[in-house]
């Protein structure tokens, strides 16, 4: 197999702000893996708040020698090789893992979800994410979210902003919504105040209210909270689930965090059997990675795959979202085409 | 999809004895699932020491209405349907799961291991199992085991038999071997005596020395034993791994116990991430189920897939074992053909 990879900058159609930062672009890497007449594509995304950096992941990918593997049928062996090369570099490994699964499906002549036995004709709803911004911004996003049945609202450290925003939202829509703090709250007192308020607003779930470093607070919060609390930044790999499953009600699994489809499937198995609710999320990334993730969406209780909607220069076409439902295509492999 | 199923009795070429029973046959059920021009095959096996009974599993299979599923691409949905129909019946569900995976591979035109990314050109060694018997029997089995590189010796409650047998074995062969008590020892004192003796004999691992009911003893034994202790009868499903993983060093996963390939993959993920060593085992069963299991063998540290070797009237042809190495074929699906 032959690997090529190159950096690319995804440009957003507008500013995207969460508790830790606001930005208008995201750095990614694309990989292309060729086997016989087939090409598999993969993507690694690098939001600025992640520890992983693009230049180092690119260097890792350049060091890989995949010519030593005859075919994409050796995903397990290729993971062992990558992990022996170096720990970490999970976005780069994710890109390779997506490309390998894309190849597998293309060779089999099947969409990946069918190949994995995960096909379902039950509609898969995805949420529309609304970042942090002023009231005009929120109104504009609400307008954009019209076709979606469910929302995810980003909140942060400022309790007054949080309350005004949610009250504003509730005055404009009756759609169910969850809330994501991205570790934004300062302490458990703020967290419990927010949980009490959000519960009165009928919120579906709360995601990562506190920094991952405040671990003990999560145990206390989970006990106090009438609303399920999902961990996102607290969970990267399967080992984190083993360590932390009692601290949360649910887990947000993202291909970019854990290393792609192989690892997301593994984490979903472990988390489900440890009693966690499963959310499938994404970073700001193009239709390449988002569509790959959609192939395993039927395993999850909550799906939040809208990371590509803000991208103005998406080099791929994949899933379309129609009335808030992921509309799968019948393309072989991961379900995307390079434009 | 259309399901047919029928009972069959596997007859052994000689008596097979373990700590709890001796027998010359095993009851099985075969299932056949048709989708378009493809037929997928599966098997459920019922060794007498298992709680599951053939007549009840056959009744469960007869109740299933798989015509409600359009294709074998819905393995996840079919599992939900089967589990809603009734808990348990894992051999029956295993047979369906094998047949579904056989169909998936046949449709994709790929051996299942390739389709799952588990292909490896690293040779997979399997052990030859020697049941309980007198010294002539042991000699005869040793002769039969000549092509194998590794042995698994069944022992039982009788400490004198155990010692004589192992000393006899050691005088005849230098091959590495593990020992399986099938819950045969009476108490932890006997267990520690056996472990001390077996350690002096260089045994690789000890499997299920005590009944699963003596749970606390396993924690103590694991702490005392210089030899890794694998659980078999103690583990049936993923929930057992969550509950018991600290009590053992390893787990023996069998398709028949857990419900087939879907469940074995899930259990392997969970067990590995909880630090357990992985053994892939089988019941006395035909080349249908044994060959299906071999498709995922590359995930395991120890492989013990010789359940078909004792069967005199095997209705399937699948893996061949050459010099103790599983010789994979290039057949699509699970890798067997009905004779």
TL;DR of this structure?
Two copies of one chain form a homodimer. Helices cover 36% and strands 23% of the residues of chain A.
Write up this protein.
The structure is a homodimer of 339-residue chains. With 339 residues, chain A is α/β, with parallel strands linked by helices. Helix content of chain A is 36%, strand content 23%. Chain A has helices at 54-63, 75-85, 90-108, 112-115, 135-144, 159-172, 188-200, 215-224, 238-244, 255-258, 261-273, 287-294; strands spanning 2-17, 22-35, 38-46, 128-130, 151-154, 177-180, 206-207, 229-231, 250-254, 277-281, 302-303, 316-317, 320-322, 325-327, 337-338. The model of chain A has no long low-confidence stretch (mean pLDDT 95).
Largest interface: A-B, 35 and 35 residues
Order of helices and strands of chain A: EEEHHHHEHEHEHEHEHEHHEHEEEEE
Give the assembly state of these chains. homodimer
Nearest-integer average pLDDT of chain A: 95
In percent, how helical is the residue content of chain A?
A: 25-40%
Beta-strand level of the residues of chain A, as a percent range?
15-25%
| Cα end-to-end separation of chain A | 23 Å
Number of strands of chain A: 15
Q: Outline of chain A, from the CA principal axes?
A: globular
Give the strand order of the largest sheet of chain A, numbering strands 1, 2, ... along the chain.
4-5-6-7-8-9-10-11
How many strands, which pairing sense, and closed or not: the largest β-sheet of chain A? 8 strands, parallel
Instruction: Provide the low-confidence segments of chain A as ranges.
Output: none
Over the alpha carbons, how many angstroms does the gyration radius of chain A reach? 19 Å
Structural class of chain A: alpha/beta
Annotation field: number of helices of chain A = 12
């Amino acid at each position: 197999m032959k690997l090529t990879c190159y950096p690319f900058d995804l440009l957003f159609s507008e500013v995207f702000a969460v508790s830790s930062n606001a930005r208008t672009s995201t750095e990614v890497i694309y990989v292309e893996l060729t086997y016989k007449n087939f090409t598999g594509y993969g993507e690694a995304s690098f939001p600025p708040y992640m520890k992983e950096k693009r230049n180092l992941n690119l260097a890792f990918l350049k060091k890989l020698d995949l010519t030593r593997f005859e075919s994409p049928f050796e995903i397990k062996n290729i993971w062992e090789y990558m992990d022996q090369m170096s720990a970490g570099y999970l976005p780069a490994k994710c890109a390779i893992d997506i490309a390998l699964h894309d190849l597998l499906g293309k060779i089999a002549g099947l969409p990946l979800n069918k190949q994995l036995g995960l096909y379902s004709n039950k509609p898969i709803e995805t949420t529309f994410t609304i970042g942090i911004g002023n009231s005009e911004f929120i109104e504009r996003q609400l307008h954009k979210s019209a076709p979606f049945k469910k929302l995810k609202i980003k909140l942060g450290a400022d309790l007054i902003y949080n309350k005004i925003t949610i009250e504003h939202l509730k005055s404009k829509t009756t759609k169910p919504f969850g809330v994501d703090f991205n570790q934004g709250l300062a302490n458990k007192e703020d967290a419990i105040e927010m949980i009490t308020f959000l519960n009165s607003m009928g919120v579906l779930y709360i995601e990562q209210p506190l920094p991952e470093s405040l671990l003990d607070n999560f145990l206390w919060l989970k006990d106090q909270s009438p609303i399920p609390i999902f961990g996102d930044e607290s969970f990267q790999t399967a080992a984190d689930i083993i360590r932390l499953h009692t601290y949360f009600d649910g887990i947000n699994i993202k291909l970019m965090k854990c290393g792609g489809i192989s690892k997301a499937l593994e984490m979903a198995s472990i988390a489900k059997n440890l009693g966690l609710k499963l959310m499938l999320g994404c970073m700001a990334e193009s239709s390449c990675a988002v569509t790959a993730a959609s192939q395993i969406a039927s395993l999850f209780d909550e799906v939040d795959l809208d990371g590509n909607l803000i991208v103005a220069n998406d080099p791929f076409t994949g899933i379309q979202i129609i009335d808030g439902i992921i509309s799968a295509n019948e393309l072989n492999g991961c379900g995307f085409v390079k434009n």
